[in-house]
Amino acid sequence: MKNTGTDLFDEFSKWQKEQGKTDGTIKTYHGVLEKFQSWLTTKNIGIDEISKNDVQSYMDYLEYQQKSTGTIEKYLAAISVFSRFLGRSQIVLDIQRKEKIKDNEVPETLNESEEKQLLLEVEADENLRNIAIVYTLLYTGIRLSELCELNHDDIILTDKKRTLIVKDQNGGIGRTIPLSKVVCKHLKNYTDSLDTSREALFVSSVNKRISTRAVQYMLQKYDVNPHKLRHTFCKRLINKGIDIRTVAQLAGHKDVNVTKRYAIDSEPNLEHAIDQAFS
Question: Which residue range(s) make up the domain with 131?
Answer without folding.
Answer: 112-267
